[in-house]
Amino acid sequence: MPSEPMRAWGLPKSGASSAIIAALLAANPASAQNEGDDGDSGQIIVTATKRAENLQSVPISVTAIGGNVLERARVTNVDDLLTKVVNLQLNSVVGDNTPIFAMRGVSMSDYSLNQSSPIATYYDEVYKSNFALLGVSMFDLERVEVMRGPQGTLYGKNTTGGAVNLIARKARLGETGGDFSAGYGNYGRIDINGAANVPFGEKVAVRVAGTFARADGWFKNIVPSKADLASVREWALRGTIYAEPSDGLRLTLRASTSKQTPRNYGIHAQPEAINRAGLDKWEIAANIDERRLAKTWSVALTADLDVADWLTLTSITSYDDGVLWFHEDTDGTATKTLEIPYFDDASQFAQDLRFTSDTGNPFDFILGIYFNREKVLNATTLEISQDVDSDGVPGITADDCATGLPLACLFSNRFAQTKKSFAIYSDVKYAFTDALTLRGGLRYTHDRGLQSDFEANVFGVDATLIANLIPLSELRYKTENLSSKIGLDYKFANGNLLYAHVSRDYRAPSFNAQAFFDPSELSVAKPEAVTAYEAGAKLGVAGSATTLNFAAFYYDYRNQQFLNVDPTNAAQTLLNIDKSRIYGGEAELSLRASDMLSLRGGLGMLSSQIVRGSVSGVNVEGNRLSNAPRLTFNLGADLTLLDTDTGRLSLHPNVAYQSNQFFEVLNISRLRQPGYAIVEGHLDFETSDGRWNASIWGKNLTNKYYFTSRIDLLAGFGLDYNHVGRPRTYGLTLGVRF
Question: 576: domain CATH number?
Answer without folding.
Answer: 2.40.170.20
